[in-house]
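Summary of Year 1 activities. Much of the first year was spent building the evaluation harness for sequence design. The harness presents a backbone, in tokenized form, and records the residue chosen at every position. We chose the following record to illustrate the format because it has been used consistently in internal testing since the harness was completed.
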């Protein structure tokens, strides 16, 4: 046989190379499968969106305006009680100063009274329909015969007397200063001309003591009130008023002297 220096391929290395390639091929397939599964998982992942929080439920606001009339109640034993005719006042007095210096607001529960002390709280009962309300005294009046109290518009609405204008009422003191403490006088006239007030003062000073003229501003002008007496009780002032009415034929009003 003739020998050749050209070496033929080593057949013993072929199975090993083939096995290595097969392992690499399987590894690549595993890696590709893993990537596919990972991508599929990401594609099917869902995002959960939280719904917005529900807004708070609005609470109903308390009603405004005049309080409802209270149930009829009997008079309080030992307290101030008075019965007579009530009236009410609004425009043009609304927004002007009251006798105690406050600005009158007809939508507040206040009233004018001739003798009760300022800041006294009074229960007012309409004797025709039984409706009640409470008011604070911050003004003086009414200076009209046979009337005992002037209510604000809101107070008059609460007891159902705005339409009629007047009503028979009962007054009961709820709280405040002692109504018996103080000084009382008698008003006998109110004039827009100061000379007329001075003329009456001069006439009465000849027969009575402590006659004064007091200037007072109202929405419809300035008035000069003629008053006399300085009595320690309302009863004594009423006796003086009766005397003046009988002897002088005057229209009189017992008033608390606030100064």
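For this record, the design step produced the sequence shown next.
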């Amino acid at each position: 046989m003739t020998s050749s220096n050209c070496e033929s391929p080593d057949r013993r290395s072929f199975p090993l190379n083939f096995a290595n390639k097969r392992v690499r091929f399987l590894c690549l397939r595993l890696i590709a499968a893993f990537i596919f599964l990972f991508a599929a998982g990401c594609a099917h992942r869902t995002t959960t969106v939280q719904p917005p929080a529900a807004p708070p439920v609005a609470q109903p606001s308390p009603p405004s305006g005049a309080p409802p009339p209270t149930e009829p109640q009997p008079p309080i034993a030992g307290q101030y009680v008075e019965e007579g005719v009530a009236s009410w006042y609004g425009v043009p007095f609304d927004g002007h100063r009251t006798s105690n210096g406050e600005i009158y607001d007809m939508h507040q529960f206040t009233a004018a009274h001739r003798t009760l002390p300022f800041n006294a709280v009074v229960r007012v009962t309409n004797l025709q329909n039984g409706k009640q309300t409470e008011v604070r005294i911050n003004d003086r009046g009414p200076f009209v015969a046979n009337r005992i109290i002037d209510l604000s518009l809101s107070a008059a609405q609460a007891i159902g007397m705005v339409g009629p204008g007047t009503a028979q009422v009962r007054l009961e003191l709820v709280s405040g200063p002692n109504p018996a403490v103080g000084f009382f006088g008698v008003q006998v006239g109110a004039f827009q001309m100061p000379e007329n007030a001075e003329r009456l003062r001069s006439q009465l000073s000849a027969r009575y003591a402590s006659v004064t003229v007091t200037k007072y501003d109202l929405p419809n002008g300035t008035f000069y009130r003629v008053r006399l007496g300085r009595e320690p009780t309302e009863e004594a002032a009423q006796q003086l008023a009766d005397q003046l009415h009988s002897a002088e034929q005057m229209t009189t009003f017992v008033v608390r002297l606030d100064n």
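Strands lie at 81-88, 110-112, 121-126, 132-139, 147-151, 166-175, 184-191, 211-218, 221-231, 253-256. Quantitative recovery figures across the full test set are reported in Table 2.
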